[in-house]
Amino acid sequence: MSFVHRKKSTAFDYVNYVLLALISVCCIFPFFYVLVVSLTDRSVYVPYSFQWFPKKWSLEAYSYILSSNSFINALKSTVFITCCGTVLNLLFTFTMAYGLTEKRLPHRKLIYGLVVFSLVFSAGIIPSFLLVKQLGLMNSYWALILPALTNAWSLIVVKSFMDSLPHEVIESAKIDGCTDLGVFIRIILPLSKPALAAFLLFFAVSHWNTYFNAVMFLTDSKKWTLQVLVKSLVLDNSAKTAGMEASIGDSSPPSETVRSASIMLAVLPILFIYPFLQKHFAKGVMIGSVKG
Length: 292
Description:
67% of the residues lie in helices and 0% in strands.
């Protein structure tokens, strides 16, 4: 008969629980405050006051934001950049990583060395700006997509993941006459679902939250991304710079509720997507990081 001995909780464990609980509260509280403000009706709204729940609920701020052409344009821009950029990121990252796993690739070690070198040393902001300008991509969505088709860290992790796949299956497919492209599509990609899910989330969040490059490369306010628009609403304390009517009056909700609603609309899509990918996300990252 075997007995399972449970480790007794020590004082250190309880201190950890308390600290983690406090950190969780500090992370959740600002989000909760913004949510409450965004749902508060203008008739009961008191500026810069905290309430656990709105005295009167209202979706007026959300309706106002979603009826704005500026917000709709920013949403369309962000969705296009996220969808197109994520697909191209996955395509280039996984195809290049698969190529680097093939020993038949000429100068494979040299290419992989250059990838590792770029992980340590980067060109910087000014060369990147000059490159985009010389390519004629200024004020174009492609300025946010093409320069970031892949990155060294993603390539290294995905290559490590593919190296851990059973080579016997790949060799059997090649013996049966399957081409390299067929092996990649029919074998590598199905076996790489955890890594695909993990990096889909990585790339999607990166594109959805793009801000600095959007400010640097997009000069037309009609092409702004959501993050740039939200920054104009929150930090400028007015939506005029974003092309929206933000004056407080009978025709519009209080500016504070409008800003809170815009923040929620910019955050919620990623929060809804993550739970569906969480299992594959954790598995993909762990396999790609540990085995290599």
